[in-house]
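INTERNAL TRANSFER SHEET
From: sequence group
To: structure group
Subject: Ankrin repeat protein

Please process the attached sequence and return the structure record in the designated field. Keep the field labels unchanged so the import script can parse them.
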Amino acid sequence: MSSLEQLRRQAKALRKAFASGAPEAVARVRAVLPEAAEIKHADALHILAREAGHASWPKLKFSVDAAEMDRAAKAERLKIALYFGQHWVVDALLSETPDLGRDNFGLACAVYDIEHVTAVLGRDPDAATRAIGVRRPMCHLAFSQHLHGQGSESDMLAVANALAEHGASANDFYNYNDQDNSPLSVLYGAIGHSNNMALGRWLLERGADPNDNESLYHATELGHHEGLRMLLDHGAKVEGTNALLRAMDFNDHTAIRMMLQAGADPNEGFFHHPSGEPMGRVYPLHQAARRMNDAEMVRILLDAGADPTVTFDGLAPYEFARVYGNAEVAQALREKGGAVPLQGQIALLARIADGEEPGAFLNPAKLPDELRNMVRAILHQPNVMDHLQRLIAAGMEWDRPDDMGVTPVQTAGWEGLPDIMAYFLRLRPDLSHVNDYGGTLLGTIIHGSENCPDRAERDHIACARLALEEGVALPKRAIELAGEEDMAEFLAEWGAAHPGQVVQDGPG
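Return from structure group:
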């Protein structure tokens, strides 16, 4: 019997003994959960973890799992945790095996072990440019998020300098999924992936190319403007990046002004990313309308020369504002002469957005593709439920995958919106659907718990619970690799309570 199975049996025994009033069991529970009148299996697991000196069941589970891993498996898990910023996993592995970061040179760079890096380069200078797996050392450094855990900025920069002194390039990159058309630069790794402004600045000062198809776009997602300013100051060009549109996803006036001042075109059309992944697809004024930006954003764009009459898929920005229900942008465009008559299904969509009974049904097949995806596009907006229900009642598609195969229910899960997700679940969507990223419904929720910009205010655990209550499989790998600690705890406890739902293999 495995150590974990023994712990689960102990938890069941504790729960049973507590329910019967056994004094020892009651004392154990009261020591951890003083107010508990009854305990669930997850509570019993938590108590066992605390008794073993761990803060939570996932940490105890990980400790047990790690004890059964060989060293190579631990090193691989450390690599993953550093890349995804799973700091509690990094801390647990290095606490148990302090020299684990020295198992290969890439790990040494990723944990900022300057002493070991210096020693290796002293006897093997070519190690600075030799790939470990699919990435060279500078990539291991740039894509590590250790700086936001226990990593030291001074040690990190010392590693960067040591690598550069032995030939590593500030323009290094690796090919994502081995695709030659999708290189990810170390500059993107530092700024866009790791939010490591110190390393981003170091790279730019040493000649890193700011026009790498990734860094500027992702610099708009960070919640601050330091990376964006650095890139623009070093000559980043906005054209062709869709960074303007991405900043508008956050109604970020400051970022838009910065890019316009740097030469961004307020009438720029959309561009296809070299990787082939779909991008923003619309013009800036259309983006302001569909992303529920405010009137000030419209004024910024119009003052910079945006054309209020430009059309996308035959629709003017004003029509976008009306069908998406953005009254503020519609009024701002109307004041600047951008209003146009609404006809046919566009008029019908506008009535739905205005809260009126449409009085007719939509024919989605005759709508532009952009509007056929409206359900997925608006579901993250506040107070949107009534609008969604009116759209779907009028015949709008509610389980249609977008350009990357992501369905509305998956988007609701990624966004961490349990009320919206529950609504879609009542419509009986295809829960077996796998999107083009390889994500199932549960995997998409877990990814959102680590990557959704609004994750701190959302409830991804409630979404995961909804999915699991619907009977979706819980891959063992999802439990093991979940990076957000509360989500990891929830999945571990669910798996312990519902072992029949846990599968060895399966897409995330």
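Handover comment: The chain has a mean pLDDT of 92. The radius of gyration is 26 Å.
Transfer complete.
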